[in-house]
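Lay summary. Proteins are chains of building blocks that fold into shapes, and those shapes determine what they do. In this project we predict the shape from the chain. Here is one chain we studied, written as its sequence of building blocks.
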Amino acid sequence: MPTTFEYAVRDRAGKISKGRLEGDSKTVVVEKLKSMGYAPVSVSEVKKGGGLNKDLSFGRKKRVKLKDLSVMSRQFAVMINAGLSLLRALTILEEQSENKTLAEVLGKVRTEVAGGTSLSAALAHHPDVFPPIMIHMTRAGEVGGFLDKVLGQLADNFEAEVKLHAKIKSAMTYPVVVFVMAILAMTVMLIFIVPVFASMFASLGGELPLPTRVLVFLSGALKIIAPFIIVGLIVFVWWWRRHKNDAKVRSFVDPLKLKAPVFGGLVQKIAISRFTRNLGTMIHAGVPILQALDITGQTTGNVVIERAVVDVQDSVRRGEPLARPLLDHPVFPAMVVQMMAVGEDTGALDTMLHKISDFYDAEVESTTEALTSMIEPIMIAVVGGMIGAMIIALYMPIFKVFDLIK
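And here is the predicted shape, written in a compact code that computers can read:
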């Protein structure tokens, strides 16, 4: 049966009008609107039913993840390389995308491309979905006539980034879960179990041992401050989500990440890997060096490296080598600077940057494995010691219960 679609079109006078039209697919509806002399702006399917049948999204759309973009870029590259037209490829991507938000945006991109807009310009209209590296590399591919290769490089880049995130996530999941469970267990003991023992000890009389008195004091204090702690955490999370990308916050937090005792080296390796991979990919795609540096500096995720990249841009504008300013920034190891300098001298900077990225990807993997193997026994010892100390403090008075009864 035909499906009903809502549309927004622009007529010859430039006026926007909306309405509904039935068709077998979005493509059919778009062609009908064009044959009527309209320029489609947006076309979306009308969902049947209402009330309980509606999709309860509570005003929030599903976020487009890097993995979604990785899959989309790989499929897009394959279809363009196979000879499919741009509009046909976008239609297929829209129909088979599992992410509804991405499918909706791809529909808008396809409509804009059908109206004569370039693919890169259409992607640029949706900066919340498509990152700058994708927009600029697509523009370079359109100008150079190698869009399929650029999309393949983007897919490789996104897949490497997804793999890196997965390694970090898998390494940190166990310690975080153990830490959270330990905090919950100690909180439950302090709020619900310790008071029971405290009332029993009070009925027996006598003076409690110092560890038990400390535990009883913490239990009473926690009952009072627990609501304030919960409210404080909620406020902090809300504030952090709104301001974590502010310049002042990043200027304070990012240097601390690099100086962290255990995880500082890991953060540094991740940032360098991301910087060299993105810069190498954009240079290989033909993006101008200054533009590539500006974009990759923003994608590193650390303001310290962003400042170093700004110095590199100034150096390149003056006609100096790209790698030289990095010597003034300790965040870049000497090996990275030397390899980039060799890449400049031999004319294979993109290749050298990818080799650096591969090296640091391997370093991140080995570092996360080492941290995991080190953190697990430490976490077990710390958690066991804390809970064990609480249990000993609770049972110490029981050893004297018979003396108290006498």
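What the prediction tells us: Confidence is low (pLDDT under 50) at residues 49-60.
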